[in-house]
Design brief:
By secondary structure, the chain is of the alpha+beta class. The chain has one domain. It contains 6 helices and 12 strands. The radius of gyration is 19 Å and the shape is globular.
Length: 227
Amino acid sequence: MVGKEKNIITDAYAGKTIMQEVEERRRKGGFSGFDGATFIDERNNGRNVHIALKNTSSDEKRIVLFAGDLLNVQEILKVAGLTVDAIAAEGNFLTKTVGETTTTEVSCIAKNLAYLQRYVTRNPSRISKLQLTVDDQDQLNKEITVTKISPFAGMGSESFLPMTYKAPGDNSEKMVVIDFKHLQVDDQTIMDVVIGAGRSLSLSIFFGASNNSAYTLDAQARELLGN
């Protein structure tokens, strides 16, 4: 609406509406490309997060980034039938103790990861892009899996290998960028990654639209009652 006052406090954290995301994608030329200008524009909207995982063990590890509404690996196994090693958390979140010696197996560097995980559980959010950077090209052949869950029946999983998304002519051996049209994280979605033994994985996750109920209620009130 022309002349409508911007609500700085809520608008800054509202995320995009689905129509804003569609319009932005159209303006940038759709879903097929990924160039420097687009990367900068996406990054500057404040809707991206960075998660760095390092596996120092001698075995590959399956790590959950987003667990939906499930609380731990035991509930993930019970509800989704997935055997995972841990849910990602900041710091040294997966350790191994032998006798009196405890060693770190997987660590994570991120900012406000626990809050992000709770946020997308309460506010369904679309992932528009993933940028993966690895220390060894073999890591790009490790699966990323998205699983839909329900208390009533199994909903199925879909796995993909980042390496298959390498663009023709892309000479970067240790990075891949994946565009998504229909990837959403919420209370009914688990997203996990496999990290090879001794490998590191850095993810930049770019979010599109969010169904932010807190913002929606405030926006409706302002629309009906005025500013």
